[in-house]
Amino acid sequence: MVCPHYSLTEHARKRLLKRGIQAAWIERALLHPARTENDPEDADLAHAIIIIPERGFRVLRVIYNETVTPVAVVTAFFDDTVKDL
């Protein structure tokens, strides 16, 4: 479980607005992910994956830097390629 206190990078702020992703969903993903994954390219990053019922049960992927305090959300997006949750 990731600390509930987190920050958003400027990139993440812009993407959340553009994609209609609510802050509550980000926090839910960080606190109670269905699954977490290591980033394949950057060892400092992790992915929290969660289903969002309010968006038709789409899968939300939140990418965050877990090496800083508070954790920094880098970006988030609905990942339609995830089929195994």
Textual characterization of the structure:
A hairpin with a 6-residue loop joins strand 2 (35-38) and strand 3 (45-52). By secondary structure, the chain is an alpha+beta fold. The chain is globular, with a radius of gyration of 12 Å. It starts with 5 loop residues before the first strand and ends in a 7-residue tail after the last strand. It has two helices and five strands.
Descriptive terms for the model:
alpha+beta; single chain; 85 residues
Approximate helicity band: 10-25%
Based on DSSP secondary structure assignment, what is the total number of beta strands?
5
End-to-end C-alpha gap: 18 Å
* Main β-sheet, spatial strand arrangement: 1-5-4-3-2
Largest sheet: 5 strands, mixed
Principal-axis shape equals globular
| SSE string, helices as H and strands as E | EHHEEEE
- Rg, alpha carbons: 12 Å
**For the residues shown, what is the average pLDDT?**
92
The number of helical elements comes to 2
Strand proportion = 35-45%
Poorly predicted sequence stretches spanning 5 or more consecutive residues: none
Give me the secondary-structure category: alpha+beta
